[in-house]
Amino acid sequence: MWNRRKEDDFQTRPAQPAAPMTESTREGIPMSTIPTRQTDYSNVRAAAVVGKSLVLKGRIEGKEDLVVDGRLEGDVDLPEHRLTIGPTGHLQGGVRAREIVIHGTVQGNLEASERVEIKKNARVIGDLKAQRPVIEDEAYFKGNVETIRPDAAKSAPKAQAAAAAAASAAEAQPSLLASEGGKAESRKG
Amino acid sequence: MSSRPQPPGSGAPTGSEVSPGGRRSYALESLSHRLDSLEGLQILDLGGINQSNLDYITGMGHRLYSEDLLRAYDSFFTLEEIQSRRLEDDRIEAFVNETLDFPDQSTDGALLWDTLQFLPPALSQAVLDRVFRILAPDSLVLALFHPETVGPAAAPYQCRILNRGQLLVAPRPARRPIEPFSTRSIERFFRRFQTVKFFLTRENLQEVIARR
Which residue segment(s) compose the domain that A94 sits in? Predict the structure, then answer.
């Protein structure tokens, strides 16, 4: 179902010099898709790929880049990574990611902590929220655009961390915090 | 007093200082003045998105709702409807509902550019009526009207905001049938608005700022 390919293989990336041929690459494509323990991906930035002929329904969450060349119906959540919708890709659902690059069609809201790029000939219907929205001429876009200020984007993870710390503290001392919360509420009232 | 960061090119043009290819727009200046003085507005751009307008509006801290009215028209109506330019009332209503689906008085400004002049009259009036309905009181609408209905000046424009008082206008690739508008008919067109101001610009292009 999932192919893996180097991000540099994607057609919109600037051409990179070909990697030197080694003994292992001459052996050809392995027939099994099961990753082996010997494979080291640590210094290869790879993206998972939904191929052209694939149709997926459901929510996707992950900690790696994703390229969609097929059809995806469902939300995508890649908070620290990049989602690319290829020219043949079609996504129906919301996206939250670090970067979003669209060449194909999207119907859903987009939220990127850094950049959203809507390329020429892309078609997007939905609201867009990003630190740096970039929309090329001849792209079709219908929806709201809102930019996130860099300071707001930086403070959001801090706020989340603070909330997480408060939650773990609450787990540690439930009775104490509950009573403090009660006092706070009564003061507000 | 505003402490908001200003978008690139937001400085006021001084005297004859005009960017290459740009043209001074008094209507845009009026709109920019309002955008400067308020925060967090919802602005509609019905001429289709471009990076300049996006940067300008969002750079001032506002939200931009974008739709390409002419492309929406092309994709919503059938070829027969477009060729005949006769549209049934229920089809017009469906188009307006789909294209401008906002609660009443929920938006704070609209950039119509010259789009309405390239729609059939019944549809352009319906779109303007809906824009009126969804705009908050005192909001401004910016529209352009071509003086001629033939020749190179009668082509739809792509309008880019260069700064608070300058526009870059360039013909869009496809030509379209254009509806004639005189000053009198523009006044009638915007009759529900509080005020309508006209600015005559280069090539007699008529700029209009209407206050809701």
Answer: 2-16+44-148
